[in-house]
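**Fold in tokens:**
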Amino acid sequence: MCDWGSYFFFTFTLAYAIDSYTANTSEMLIAMCVGKQLISFAFGIYLLDWVLESGYAVVIAGVFTAVLFANNLLVLPFMRYGKQIRTFYAHTWLARMHRRSVKQVITH
């Protein structure tokens, strides 16, 4: 279940990001992959100690599954309000900063 939840979350996140922000796709993919690997690295270092201290059921079935469930529930608001969220962020300082870095616009 944990592997399925992780796959579901990252797959939908990646698909949403690529579909929504096509101008800086290569930079975004690199940032997402690095972030995912940093999370995996942190879990790899500290997870065994945490499991030995708290127990497998508490860590994996309780904490990790609850975090994945909360993240996966965010798919529903993004499906409903995604366009409004993107429109709002298109007028922020972050969007203006990234507009200067766009080298090529990819359309589908």
Observations:
- The first helix runs from residue 2 to 20.
- The chain has five helices and no strands.
- The chain has a mean pLDDT of 76.
